[in-house]
Design goal:
Elements lengths: L10 H8 L6 H7 L1 H9 L4 H16 L2 E4 L2 E3 L1 H15 L2 H6 L4 H24 L5 H24 L6 H5 L16 H32 L1 H5 L15 E2 L7 E2 L2 H38 L29
Antiparallel strand pairs: 1-2, 3-4
Helix pairs in contact: 2-3, 2-10, 4-10, 5-7, 5-10, 7-8
Length: 313
């Protein structure tokens, strides 16, 4: 087990949660409670937790490890398979079916065969040269499909497809040329690195928020200031922000000034909802998003951007 991640935490469950979207403090508290205790006690640092958890996440998420030591997303390799399928088909294929439903179906199934063969080879030979790996996977895919494509497009003439395919049995170095499958894979590396940077940044901010007590703030009654871990707080129905542990606390808060602040908090809440969409759009575009926020009232400290609302939108 990685040092900073407590061995009593269920790391697999945490990774499954991370795969669903944003990483935030309350999620870390839920899925890695022992590690969060270590953060609060100072046994581990947010930076170390971010590094180790990002590494674990990458091993789970990016399972293709045969490319010069780099991990690749399954979607990236599948996209490459689609590119290989297009590149492998001879002109007769495109004249016969082109981009029709039949042609699209053949290309799709061909790419899945490439994905399967490539995956097995990448796992069996993790240090194989990338050009050789892609070439071998492409050649074996062509050979597996040769009989069917000979029947469909070459009147059953054995070996016709392999002879006409532009990518079968070419030199490995040619896969690095412009427009070839390897170029497709290489273009994904920048996107992959950016996605990993975004994920690590999210983990780091979440770990820092654990130390700052953001999760505990969410579990604190706005009136009596008591932390209510085991109580479901009641949210004000007007502003949808202020939280109370009981009806009595809510009534007392209304008398003491929440009645005046409620409308303003509702406006801030709506601004938060709009901002969350900006964050999601930025996340989809793989741009790094930093933690932001503002003070909601005198008893509530600075909150991580979107943290307060993640369970309510």
């Amino acid at each position: 087990m990685t040092n900073s991640i407590n061995q009593n935490d269920d790391v697999d469950a945490a990774v499954q949660w991370m795969l669903k979207g944003r990483v935030y403090a309350s999620g870390l508290q839920k899925y890695l409670p022992k590690t969060c205790q270590d953060l609060l006690s100072g046994k581990v640092t947010p930076e170390k937790v971010a590094d180790d958890l990002d590494t674990i996440y990458a091993v789970k998420k990016f399972s293709y490890m045969g490319m010069g030591g780099m991990g690749w997303d399954e979607d990236d390799v599948r996209d490459c398979g689609i590119f290989v399928a297009h590149a492998a088909m001879p002109q007769k294929f495109w004249r016969a079916v082109g981009i029709s439903d039949k042609g699209t179906s053949i290309n799709h199934d061909f790419s899945l065969t490439f994905l399967s063969i490539y995956t097995k080879k990448a796992e069996a030979f993790p240090k194989m040269d990338l050009k050789v790996l892609v070439k071998q996977a492409t050649d074996e895919t062509c050979e597996e499909w040769a009989g069917r494509l000979d029947k469909l497009f070459f009147r059953g003439k054995k070996g016709a497809f392999l002879k006409k395919s532009p990518v079968y049995h070419i030199e490995p170095r040619r896969f690095e040329e412009h427009g070839m499958p390897l170029q497709k894979l290489k273009r994904t590396q920048a996107n992959l690195d950016m996605r990993r940077d975004v994920k690590r940044t999210c983990i780091l901010h979440a770990a820092k928020d654990v130390i700052l007590g953001v999760y505990h703030i969410k579990k604190t009654c706005w009136q009596c200031k008591q932390n209510k871990d085991n109580v479901s707080l009641q949210v004000c129905g007007k502003c949808n922000v202020a939280s109370y542990c009981s009806r009595d606390c809510q009534v007392e808060a209304w008398k003491q000034g929440h009645k005046t602040a409620c409308k303003n908090l509702r406006s801030k809440f709506e601004e938060f909802q709009k901002s969350l969409k900006i964050v999601d759009d930025a996340h989809d575009g793989m741009e790094t998003v930093v933690s932001e926020g503002f003070i909601l009232n005198d008893g509530v400290a600075m909150m991580s951007f979107g943290e307060l609302l993640c369970d309510r939108v």
